[in-house]
Write a structure and sequence with these properties.
The complex is a heterodimer of chains A (about 500) and B (about 160). Chain A is an all-alpha fold and about 500 residues long. Chain A is built from 22 helices and two strands. Chain B folds into two domains: about 60 residues; about 80 residues. In chain B, α3 crosses α4. Classes of the chains: A mainly alpha (about 500), B mainly alpha (about 160).
């Protein structure tokens, strides 16, 4: 039980007064980010990243991950009370949450989101605590060939499990890789794709790209919809909590399925809380005794969605700390943070940065406790934020985005790129090009290229190296299978109806 | 929608073309230290080009299959609110370099609140002054993150 001893050590770090305040501050900001429809978790974490530059690394990761937990909680408030998704992963929460609120059961709907969400997060952190160390130990034995195979596996999940068109998904990832290639070549040091420009030598900042593509793009899309916040008042009483705690055992199957499914989807690179929430909702509906009631305000609908979303959020950090691969776009931003703090993401964290890793894991427990307490007690306060007029909120979010983009490298070029990325994000979203592959390719580009080139140097240019080493070969075969999956799926659909669930996951960010 | 799909696919084909051209210039084959600098961009550009051509083909065939009236990418009615967000934002971003973040932020907030939101002048002034002051205190004093001050860089004591 070495993990347990390490975890206890982690708690002594996470529970220090400074880290506790940082965690509470992060969760609080995260809930606000979650509540605001124009500001998603991915761009929210990216905007707040510069605040961590003066913090010790453990506090910095506690801060960023707690923002993520807060945002996972906050999205449900807007969805349930206002019938507008605060986050993409709380879209499915609206289906049953808002009808419940309309029937005067707003408190119960909110409690059905927070309490199962909290328990799902807790179970996922437990899974995390005991799965992460052996996985990291395995990953420590990886050479460049295995690393490249894992990375391609990460990208194959986009086409294999994503709902978008495969050609668009691959195109989006390629654009990200090409953007990552701009600047100095990592091996030969030659400038490439810079076209003689000095500014471009340092390459494209990944943080600016995620703020622009996700944040500004989302604001432009929201402008089309002319949001109006006419909501239902909601407050959670002790009675609501009691009702939910009582009906939870009756829906244990829904809850457990949602949690396990969510955790698994979260671990799969690139697919975060959003597809997890849709899939879990679809499963709950399909296996329910009364599927026709879904959408009219049944608490199971909210429970299924929220438990999967929270579990996926935790799961997304598992490949991040063990393999150096982000499980979701928000985790990708956190990975970008690790590079900036001077850490090497991946399995070596477990041997060289014990305080960092176990402090993070302990703070997952603490952050989710803080999150559920904040949300259960302060819903009216958070809902009041949505009364801020649109004409103040929009420029404020844009200004905060520019600060976030500027502060990473202190170059105005990054701010200028924001509207450009925003426009690309807006067009891509409308044409259903998924954005997550682009952002993840941009952050993993150098690592992927290095792994590929080192493997080829080792093998003298032969691709056989990826198939002669057993671990690499296993990953490669799985990769090829996932890339071919879109072609196989029409056949599979005739066999089982389960695949229909995936049609619900239109947006693939989380 | 169809035209937008075609333009987007063509733009990506162009990006792929640039990538291939650059990779050829750098060399994409085997060099003295393994694969040359253009190796990775070359294959990615090639894949990007192939995928974009597939998307292009799909887009061209799209309208024939659906029949019905073509769906516009952005209707004229919706274009206005989108531009109302995009254009002031672009203007603000360009202003940062000239007059610095704080003044540009104040002007941008004031413009947006007054002309888009029709808020009263006292509210405009309050937000327009409070936000830059608050960001200054939080960022430069507390988190030690300097923001661009444009023309005033030389004259300010901090």
């Amino acid at each position: 039980m070495e993990a347990l001893a390490n975890l206890l050590h982690g708690f002594t770090i996470a529970i220090s007064p400074y880290n506790l305040i940082i965690a509470a501050f992060g969760v609080f900001l995260g809930v606000i980010i979650g509540v605001l429809p124009g500001l998603g978790g991915t761009s929210g974490v990216a905007i707040l990243l510069p605040l961590t530059f003066t913090m010790p690394t453990t506090s910095a990761i506690v801060f960023l991950s707690c923002i993520y937990w807060g945002a996972l909680f906050g999205g449900a408030i807007t969805s349930i009370l206002f019938n507008i998704p605060g986050e993409p992963w709380s879209v499915a929460t609206m289906f049953d949450g808002h009808p419940m609120a309309r029937q005067g059961k707003a408190g119960q709907a909110l409690a059905s989101a927070f309490i199962p969400g909290f328990f799902a997060a807790l179970i996922s952190v437990l899974l995390f605590t005991f799965f992460a160390p052996p996985l990291a130990e395995l990953a420590l034995k990886f050479g460049p060939a295995e690393n490249f195979a894992v990375l391609t596996l990460a990208f194959s999940t986009f086409t294999g499990l994503g709902a978008g068109s495969p050609a668009k998904t691959i195109a989006s990832a390629c654009v990200g890789f090409l953007l990552a290639a701009v600047g100095l070549d990592i091996v030969t040091g030659k400038p490439r794709l810079t076209f003689g420009s000095i500014e471009m030598l340092s390459g494209f900042s990944f943080i600016t790209a995620s703020i622009g593509l996700f944040g500004i793009g989302e604001i432009l899309l929201a402008a089309e919809e002319a949001l109006e916040f006419k909501g239902v008042q909601g407050k959670i009483g002790l009675r609501d909590i009691w009702v939910v705690v009582r009906i939870l055992p009756r829906n244990l199957l829904t809850f457990i399925t949602g949690t396990i499914l969510g955790f698994w989807i979260g671990v799969m690179p690139g697919t975060g809380a959003t597809p997890a929430s849709f899939m879990s909702y679809g499963m709950a509906k399909q296996y329910s005794k009364h599927p026709e009631k879904f959408g009219t305000g049944v608490p199971e609908g909210v429970m299924a969605t929220e438990s999967a979303a929270h579990a996926a959020g935790i799961g997304a950090l598992l490949p991040l700390v063990t393999l150096g691969i982000p499980g979701s776009p928000t985790a990708a931003v956190i990975l970008g943070g690790l590079y900036i703090w001077g850490l090497q993401p991946g399995p070596t964290l477990f041997t060289q940065q014990k305080d960092f890793v176990w402090g993070l894991i302990a703070s997952m427990y603490i952050g989710n406790v803080i999150g559920v307490l904040f949300c259960l007690s302060m819903v009216p306060l958070f809902a009041a934020i949505l009364k801020t007029p649109y004409a103040i909120l929009t420029p404020l979010i844009i200004l905060l985005s520019s600060i976030g983009a500027y502060a990473v490298h202190n170059t105005t070029l990054d701010i200028w790129l924001l509207p450009v990325y925003g426009l690309i994000g807006y067009v891509f979203k409308k044409l259903k090009y998924p954005l997550a592959p682009l952002v993840i390719a941009l952050v993993l580009g150098d690592m992927t290229e290095e792994a590929l080139r080192q493997s080829l140097i080792l093998s003298g240019g032969s691709l056989a190296i990826f198939f002669t080493r057993p671990i690499a070969a296993g990953f490669m075969i799985l990769t090829i299978f996932l890339f071919l999956l879109p072609a196989i799926r029409p056949l599979a659909r005739r066999v089982g109806r389960t695949f229909k669930v995936e049609e619900g996951e239109k947006a693939a960010e989380g | 929608m169809k035209r937008a799909e075609i333009i987007c696919a063509l733009a990506l084909v162009a990006v792929a073309g640039i990538g291939v051209a650059e990779a050829v210039r750098l060399g994409f084959g085997w060099g003295p230290s393994g694969p040359r600098a253009g190796f990775f961009p070359f294959w990615l550009s090639l894949i990007l080009g192939l995928c974009s051509l597939t998307n292009l083909g799909k887009a061209i065939r799209m309208s024939a299959a659906t029949g019905g009236p073509p769906k516009p990418f952005v209707s004229r009615k919706l274009l206005k609110p989108v531009l109302a967000v995009f254009l002031p934002m672009t203007a603000a971003v360009l202003l940062f370099e000239v007059v610095g973040f704080y003044l540009a932020a104040a002007l941008y907030l004031a413009f947006y609140m007054r002309w888009m939101g029709r808020h009263s002048w006292p509210a405009v002034l309050a937000v327009g002054i409070l936000f830059p002051v608050a960001t200054f205190l939080i960022l430069e004093r507390w988190f030690l993150i300097p923001l661009p001050k444009g023309l005033f860089e030389k004259y300010l004591p901090f």
